[in-house]
Design brief:
Transferase(Phosphotransferase), domain 1, 20% helix, Phosphorylase Kinase, domain 1, 23 strands, six-stranded mixed beta sheet, single chain, six-stranded antiparallel beta sheet, 3 domains, 7 helices, Immunoglobulin-like
Length: 438
């Protein structure tokens, strides 16, 4: 083991990949109680060209009480710069100060243990080279997310108050951006939804700028990837808790007349240990409840000829495709998570219930023996869940969520009553079954 003050090499691999192990990180320690978490990025600095720094910096995860180890992504160059940012919830820094960071040049061929107590965090006001001015506020661009699609670009940025936040610019679809702003304004005071911080409609350049809070726990797609990297899987108690939180979120959406239309792991964030729903660009506002009980719903259709982004964490969303062919009837959502009725442009809360079912099915495919199961569901509609890892009650409930008929999943109340009755003895869900639902 090579010791180098704050960093030492270690002999550790996960699935053949090198890792970064963080030690001596303790939120309860008096020295560290002023900041909330550590944000870890890798920088392929030798690729840099003019105004391209943020494209070569990749966020790989957060370090907190729940996670102290990260797997190096395949996209890291043979030699890269490690960047660790101290992220503040309520900063004690002066306005003229910059966010404190630690940097170190490392080799992809090695795993490292990073001793946080020994890391010398310094202020580098000009480290991040690009910035964006929105409503007279400056935001330093840190990293662009690799799974951005052709509809918008999403960046990790730092505001003047040292908070890390998300910045999204939308250059392709005004309706999508307007939907997102309208929904987030309605839900602004609700902690179950990603907080809208600022926005600006640049009519001259036809760009919508949206600033939202940064969720410290990442999203469920990242959580899925982390567990697969570590050869672990979601426990049933975790899945039950997620279902409870998501159904409470759906009740809030229903109270505001919103159908999200794009619930999937990468749009479900983790903030302060609880689930938070974001990305309302595909949402639909329902003035009156749409009765889909007697609609003739077709079997799942194959959606083809779509452009996918390489090396994505999550699948791309679809929005208002300009084709009348059967293969492109789905207009809002993500392949594999779109309900049968949404494929026929029929939007109601049953659509979101189906998407939650597909999201939970994806999480239940985390074990190495199950990882093709969600692809089978996407391509053939087959629902396969391990009976050795998960109970019959949970498996049956997922089948209910994914029922092809919206009539059979139209009521959260009815679905939860069935599930709660089956697991009462386990006491593993806290949803209030007395919550009124129309």
């Amino acid at each position: 083991m090579n010791k180098n003050y704050s960093i030492e090499t270690i002999d550790r691999l996960i699935n053949g990949k090198n890792v970064l192990k963080f030690i001596n990180f303790d939120d309860d320690d008096e020295v560290y109680n002023s900041f909330d978490r550590l944000v870890v990025l890798v920088y392929n600095l030798f690729r840099d060209k003019d105004n391209e720094q943020h494209r070569n910096i990749t966020l790989i995860g957060n370090i907190n009480d729940y996670s102290d180890e990260l797997v190096l992504p395949d996209t890291v160059d043979a030699q890269y710069q490690l960047i660790i940012i101290r992220s503040y919830t309520s900063t004690e820094l002066d306005e003229e100060d910059s966010i404190p960071i630690y940097t170190k040049l490392l080799n992809k061929s090695q795993s490292y243990a990073i001793n946080i107590r020994e890391c010398q965090f310094e202020q580098h006001p000009n480290f991040f080279q690009q910035s964006q001015i929105i409503n007279d506020n400056r935001y330093d661009l840190i990293s662009i997310f690799p799974n951005c699609n052709g509809i918008n670009k999403v960046y990790l940025v730092c505001g003047a108050d040292q908070r890390l936040i998300y910045y999204k610019d939308n250059q392709k679809c005004y309706e999508r951006a307007e939907n997102e702003i309208k929904a987030m304004e309605l839900l602004k005071e609700n902690p179950n939804f990603v907080l809208l911080i600022d926005h600006h409609d640049d009519k001259e350049n036809q760009i919508f700028h949206i600033i939202t809070e940064y969720c410290d726990g990442g999203d469920l797609a990242q959580e899925y990837k982390l567990l697969t990297d570590l050869n672990q899987f979601f426990e049933e108690s975790d899945i039950s808790e997620y279902i409870s939180q998501l159904f409470n979120i759906l009740l809030e959406l229903d109270n505001n007349g919103i159908v999200h239309c794009d619930i999937k792991p990468s749009n479900i964030f983790i903030h302060d240990g609880t689930l938070t729903l974001g990305d309302f660009g595909c949402c639909k506002f329902i003035d009156e409840y749409q009765d889909t009980q007697n609609q003739n719903i077709e079997q799942p259709i194959v959606i083809s000829n779509l452009k996918f982004i390489d090396n994505e964490i999550s699948e791309p969303s679809i929005f208002d495709m300009d084709s009348n062919t059967l293969q492109t009837k789905a207009t809002r959502g993500t392949i594999g998570y779109i309900s049968p009725e949404a494929k026929n442009r029929q939007y109601a809360q049953s659509c979101d219930i189906f998407s939650i079912g597909s999201t939970m099915l994806k999480l239940l495919c985390c074990h190495q023996d199950d990882r093709n199961n969600h692809e089978l569901f996407k391509s053939k509609g087959e629902i396969i869940i391990s009976e050795t890892r998960y109970s019959k009650q949970l498996i049956d409930f997922i089948h209910l969520l994914l029922d092809q008929s919206p009539k059979n999943r139209e009521s959260l109340q009815q679905l939860l009553n069935l599930y709660i009755e089956a697991i009462t003895n386990q006491d593993s869900i806290t949803f209030n079954v007395n919550t009124p639902f129309p």
